[in-house]
Amino acid sequence: MYKVLLVDDEVLSIEGLKLAVEWEKLGYEICGICQDGEEAIRQIEKLQPHLVITDIMMPVINGLDLIEHVWKHTEHKVEFVIMSGYSEFEYAKRALQYGVNYYLLKPVFGDELSEILHKISRKFEEEEKLQRSRYGKAKEDCCAIIHELLLGTYSPDESDQMEAFADDLRTVSVWRYVRLENCCSFISHHLKHEAIHIQEQQGEDESLKNIMDQVLRDYFRAYMIECSFYSCGIVMDIRESSQDCKEIECLLLKLRTEIAKAMGIEFYIGVGEAVGNIASIRHSYRTAQQALYYKFFNQRNSVIFYDYIKEKSLSRMLEKLDEVNHVIEALEEMNVSRLIDSLNSMFSYFKSVWLAPEVVRMLVVQIVYHSFAIIRKTNGSPLEVLKKHPVSQWERKITIEEFKDLLTDYCMDCCEYIQRLNQRNLNDTVYKIQEYVKENFKRNLTIVEISKKLYMHPVYLGQLFSRKFGVRLNEYIHQLRIEEAKKLLATTTLKSHEVAAALGYNTYLGFLQHFEKYTGMKPVDYKQRLKS
């Protein structure tokens, strides 16, 4: 079980975190709770947690100072997840300087936290697996020696074994480490163990080795160093020094295709920098991992060479937020065409500066939370949109293009939902106007009075009513009055001028004009027709 320390000065927030997910089922145990950063520093030294989830704004020592202290003064490696309120986003930027990749906005959603916990546990497991894994008991075994080299634990006093290994592979001129990583970035804790269990039963590692041998044996000597549902590591020697990246890429794409065909698993492939000596294979291993970090900017199932990205560097700077603000403004205006243009422009900017995936996700979360505020202003519920776009999906998307498509779909559905809310609110408002007029049309009623009653501008109220009913408000009032006049003339002994006064007309002439306009006859003629 991985140990988790929760740090927050708000008791309710801590209780909410404890209940948000099923910690034990996800492989975690809460080892401690702290209410400020100073206490957290002491507990981190004492408990040595794997993970710390901390609020930013706290008394004594805040969350950012806590992270900085641990980063500078603690040898024990700790993973951090930071939480903040909506208004504290500017503070969260600083955490990026210390390698914090996970950011949650309060209130914390359970599925969003679960997703992050899955990713972190997966990272821990990969590191542990590399420490534990061994192929062959004897040091003379090639895979065992390579594995020690990858770990950096090969002892210098075993140089005789290293020489024997080198003699066995005298034809080798170039070495590369290749890492295959499952394109399925998310799998539940239960399914993960089930998949590994099945894998052990069916010997999928042997299947992978067989496929690898069939595809690569005529070109490379390859050694499978690690194998799991998530990833596979291959160390290969390239017998022809002229073998370039394009030829290697074609072979690896063929390998990926054969694996997908036989086992239904699709992989990203990261290729480390070539080294001329097996003793330097750790460098190729590290650069293969770095190459895979750039999968965010590549298509699924792609082969990513460190040679292509080594001159690039991911940006964590959040200086320019204009593109993000344009998306938010378009969302507030409900301008769909501008929104689409702004989204395209924003993601183009992200790609142009190679903005780190965790920063992109943080900015996208900000846009989503802005949409929540807009929805609430229109008396709606953000959960109605989130039903179609669960929070867990935001972490499942691997590439920036997939992330863009997901956010675009969300924003389009958000606009559609807000438009429905606006229409409903509009209908409610028009209904209120109509009801008020029906209750008060028999007296001297003005549009100014109605607008004050319903807290609306008179001009907007008049335009709104005209669009809904196709007539101006004053005309609608006269229509109601004349219909009522016809009833009174038919069912009472009131004279015409008495009916006019009862319906709020200041002069009989005004009543007469409107009665003739809507009925085509004078009141006396209408009454005579009723008698006959």
Q: Can you offer a commentary on this structure?
A:
This protein is an alpha/beta fold. The protein folds into 4 domains: 2-124, Rossmann fold (3-Layer(aba) Sandwich); 133-309, Alpha-Beta Plaits, CATH 3.30.70.270; 322-423; 441-531, Homeodomain-like (Arc Repressor Mutant, subunit A, Orthogonal Bundle), CATH 1.10.10.60. It has helices at residues 11-20, 37-47, 63-73, 89-95, 110-132, 142-151, 159-168, 189-202, 204-216, 245-263, 281-293, 306-309, 322-333, 336-352, 357-377, 382-386, 393-396, 400-440, 447-453, 458-469, 473-491, 496-502, 508-519, 523-531; strands at 2-7, 28-34, 51-55, 79-84, 102-105, 174-182, 220-227, 231-238, 267-271, 303-305. A 5-stranded parallel β-sheet has the order 2-1-3-4-5, sandwiched between helices. Helix 9 (204-216) packs antiparallel against helix 10 (245-263). The longest helix is centred in the last third of the chain and has 41 residues, at 400-440. The N and C termini lie far apart (96 Å).
